[in-house]
Amino acid sequence: MTDPAAVRRVPVARLDEIPEGTMRMVEVDATHILVVHRDGLHALQGICSHEYFELDGGFLTGDAITCALHLSRFDLATGEALDPPATLPLARYPVIVEEGVILLELPVGAIPVNE
Q1: Cα of 69 vs its chain's centroid, Å
Q2: Each residue of 78-106: pLDDT tens digit?
Q3: Is residue 51 part of a domain?
Q4: Domain annotation covers residue 112
Q5: Which residues on neighbouring strands pair with residue 31, listed in sequence order?
Q6: What is the pTM of this model?
Q7: What local confidence, expressed as pLDDT, does residue 1 receive?
Q8: For the domain that residue 55 is a member of, what is the CATH number?
Q9: pLDDT of residue 4
Q10: What is the mean pLDDT of residues 21-48?
């Protein structure tokens, strides 16, 4: 179990700012995080794990995000790479909504990403 003192809740947007079927890149501590509203809310590292490319320039395909640079797809629920050339999953971050505000539960200190 994660030490509650080692986790912080960071507000990143209002729920009505990211309608169903859309995504938005946010930045926390110089880390790009992609918030996706598709069958619930998902928060994943915002930079492709294969090669530097901001994933908000990609597109949603079913339950995946597709990187527009080399067309690697990543599962929204798990972050797993579904198509090459990417092999590393995207880091995922817990999302909660309180009073219409989207909050990310992030570790205190460095935010983990896969690269």
Answers
A1: 17
A2: 999 999 999 999 999 999 999 999 999 99
A3: yes
A4: no
A5: 28
A6: 0.94
A7: 46
A8: 2.102.10.10
A9: 60
A10: 98
Q: What is the residue whose two structure tokens read 């309608």?
A: 19
Domain that holds residue 10: 4-107
DSSP assignment string, the chain: ---GGGEEEEEEEEGGGS-TTEEEEEEETTEEEEEEESSSEEEEESB-SSSS-BGGGSEEETTEEE-TTT--EEETTT--B-STT--SPPPB--EEEETTEEEEEEESSSPP---
- Mean pLDDT score across all residues of the chain: 95
Look at residue 11 and tell me if it is in a domain: yes
User: How many domains would you assign to the chain?
Assistant: 1
Tell the burial category of 80 from Cβ atoms under 10 Å away from its Cβ (0-12, 13-18, 19+). Answer: middle
* 58 domain-assigned: yes
Q: Which amino acid is at 34?
A: L
Q: Which residues pair with 45 in a beta bridge?
A: 33
pLDDT (0 to 100) of residue 3: 65
